[in-house]
Design brief:
Layout: E1 5-10, H1 15-24, E2 27-34, E3 37-45, H2 46-53, E4 62-67, E5 70-81, E6 88-95, E7 101-111, H3 117-120, E8 123-127, E9 131-137, E10 145-148, E11 157-159, E12 170-171, E13 179-185, H4 187-205
Parallel strand pairs: 1-4, 2-6, 7-10
Antiparallel strand pairs: 1-3, 2-3, 4-5, 5-6, 7-9, 8-13, 9-12, 11-13
């Protein structure tokens, strides 16, 4: 099962007034939905919720919901924050089976930029997709999708087929090998490279 356990209470009061009362009591209001059952208004202690949220393993991951002695696997689908204080205001949980295949967006991370010669030649990374929606078993959701930039060259286009993913991870875009990012020449980079070349040339003549 999941590493994170959310101890929830069922909320009696719903709507804006009920949510405000929940926050005043030191909890974060939320909603549990999906699985062919009716939505249920719930809440979680705010301190515990924040602690789990900032591990990076809550949002978009399989976690365990606990209500009394009952437990069930859920996916934390969304968290809304106060734009000023960044306090969590509301969250959505979706009921799932552990081996159920679900759709979910996962972030793309780029590694080994320092091992990519293109960036020393004045190239810049133009990211087309910061996240990719995938189909994956709920208990196999990857933390992120890794793109290894080592060995890529100036002008390269990085596509979905370049991303190393487990066999049970499929992109929801299935009709084409879509673009994740590209390595392009930047005018500033070209100028810097040109200036270095000129300086080197002057030095060799002297």
């Amino acid at each position: 099962m999941a590493e994170i356990i959310l101890n929830v209470d069922v909320r009696e009061g719903v709507g804006t007034g009920g949510a405000r009362a929940t926050r005043r009591a030191g909890a974060v209001p939320g909603i549990l939905y999906g699985g062919g059952k009716a939505p249920v208004a719930i809440s979680v202690n705010e301190k515990d919720f924040r602690k789990n949220l900032y591990t990076g393993k809550l949002l978009g991951h399989l976690v365990t919901l606990k209500y009394g002695s009952e437990t069930q696997p859920v996916i934390a689908k969304d968290v809304q924050f106060d734009p000023v204080t960044d306090r969590p205001l509301h969250f959505d949980l979706m009921r799932v089976d552990e081996d159920q295949t679900i759709k979910i967006e996962v972030p793309v991370h780029f590694i080994n930029e320092d091992q990519c010669k293109a960036f020393r030649e004045g190239g810049s990374l133009e990211i087309v997709r910061h996240t990719v929606e995938i189909m994956v078993p709920a208990n196999h959701i990857p933390e992120d999708l890794i793109v290894d930039l080592a060995g890529h060259q100036l002008g390269d286009t990085i596509r979905w087929s370049d991303v190393k993913v487990p066999a049970d991870v499929k992109a929801t875009i299935a009709d084409r090998d879509f673009v994740i990012a590209s390595i392009k020449s930047s005018s500033a980079g070209k100028s810097a490279v040109g200036a270095d070349a000129e300086e080197g040339g002057d030095g060799s003549e002297g």
